[in-house]
Amino acid sequence: MAHNILLIGGHGKVAQLLTPLLLAKSWNVTSMIRTASQQPTIEKLGQGQPGKLSVLVSSVADVKSENDAKGILDQVKPDWVVWSAGAAGKGGAEMTFAVDRDAAIAFTKASINTPSVKKFLTVSYLSSRRGRAPWWNDEDWASAQKVNNEILPDYFKAKVAADEVLTVLSNDRVAREEKEGVAANERFCGISLRPGTLTEQPAGNVNMGKIGAGDKVSRATVAEVTAKVLEKEGVRGWVDFVDGQEEIATALDNHAICHGLIKRQKFRLPKIDVDLTSEVLHEGTHGVDLRVELGNVVLLAAQSGLILAFLKDLATPYPIRLYLLMASEEHFSNGSNLLFGGKAQGKVVRRYLKRLLPAFQGVLGELEQPARAGESRASSSAGCL
């Protein structure tokens, strides 16, 4: 199928590497660039390619609202949107927030609220998170804090805000589509690509999933991963990656398994363990997220109903562990703090458990709580968020 792709920030380094890869798949690309002087460079990227390349001269900085972004979507009529724009440190904090936060959020909202747009992919970065990833060591955490608080504080604030909007609104749309009976392979895919520090090296293999914050990845590899993520059915959510040992296709297969893209069959489920973990998936949502581990398979959902519906039809010989992942500005050190440590946070979790646990008792059987939240968790070779 010849997809129509709006590539925002088409003159950027990653976007220029990505454009020929998309066109080579016979996809049509509209490259959105800032000035007409950039047009000859972009047009050369389409020479000899089976896909059609169009150029749209329109500055991202001029997009001030969802309506502004919707006007561009109506003009281009894409079914996939790729955000690869950025202020690149030019224009100070004002331009950073105008482009990396406000315009990014405007396009995110407009895309998610446009039924014909089926995928929205943003190129973010590995440390765009408010809390410490559970698998990071002290060096990783120090590296992330240095980047986010000292080197690029405005960029961090802008990117993490845009990432949160994408996560929350994508989950909401998927939940609506599931309720409306939209087939699984036709539901919206919101994707946040989260590469490490960018280099100019050739494209290569990757490590994907639970990776350190200070690692690097080439821009060429980012372009390759972007093209393959778009091509693969059903990939959504956060995709952390750096240079590594796995071929991109293999790493993505493992990532897809992590996110529950497996065949459903009838099966009597074993008992599950309930764990209150300190892991923070993202900040800014309302309520609690769910994570379920089935052996080496990890499922994520924004609403308990999605997990319940999935588990009712899921075949697995593995023990099941259920995690509650709560959005919070504070990184809780252990599960008891997550449940009881914060005033508002503790109340939210307790209210949620009162609603959630009876539903699971009827479906999944006995519920037990492990001794502590920080114990090791099973994951695939790629690691899962």
Automatic annotation (TrEMBL):
Family: Belongs to the avfA family.
Annotated Gene3D superfamilies: NAD(P)-binding Rossmann-like Domain
Lineage: Eukaryota, Fungi, Dikarya, Ascomycota, Pezizomycotina
SUPFAM superfamilies (UniProt xref): NAD(P)-binding Rossmann-fold domains
Pfam families reported in the protein's UniProt record: NAD_binding_10
InterPro entries: NAD(P)-bd_dom, NAD(P)-bd_dom_sf
NAD(P)-binding domain: residues covered: 9-232
Protein name, as recorded: Nad dependent epimerase dehydratase
Domain of life: Eukaryota
